[in-house]
Design a protein that fits this description.
Helices cover about 55% and strands about 5% of the residues. With about 120 residues, the chain is mainly alpha-helical. The chain has a two-stranded antiparallel ribbon with strand order 1-2. The protein is globular. Helix 1 (about 1-15) packs across helix 3. The longest helix has 14 residues, at about 1-15. A hairpin with a 2-residue loop joins strand 1 (about 45) and strand 2 (about 50).
Length: about 120
């Protein structure tokens, strides 16, 4: 039980790291990318979550979704490279569905020249 509490606390702490998380209207590029891959890669399943366009409930309110979104934000804004993103997501949410969804997401990532370093 103690390990679970520590893991949850860590996830909640990481979830708060993305400045554009959930509702930043300036993150139009990131939001559009997530909406697109939610359709193109459907079902975009990460661990127990199915990622949907427009941050539809119930997943957007979970700490796990926040951790996933933080990692996607870091990838999209060029803070981490695709291989690091893939490793992070597969470590955080192991499973074949996650691996398949992660590969699809990365395959649909716009080229670096089309992605900003910060929300816009």
């Amino acid at each position: 039980m103690h390990k679970t509490a520590i893991a949850l606390a860590a996830a909640l702490g990481l979830a708060g790291c993305a400045p554009d998380q959930f509702s930043n209207v300036k993150a139009t590029g990131l939001n559009g990318f997530i909406d697109n891959v939610a359709v193109v890669c459907a079902p975009l399943q990460v661990g127990p979550m199915v990622i949907t366009p427009n941050y539809q409930p119930p997943n957007y309110a979970s700490a796990q979704y926040g951790v996933w979104l933080d990692q996607v934000s870091n990838l999209y804004y060029k803070r981490i490279e695709p291989p690091v993103f893939i490793e992070n997501i597969n470590n955080l949410f192991p499973g074949e569905r996650t691996a398949t969804a992660t590969k699809c997401l990365v395959a649909n990532l716009p080229p670096p020249s089309e992605r900003p370093f910060a929300p816009r």
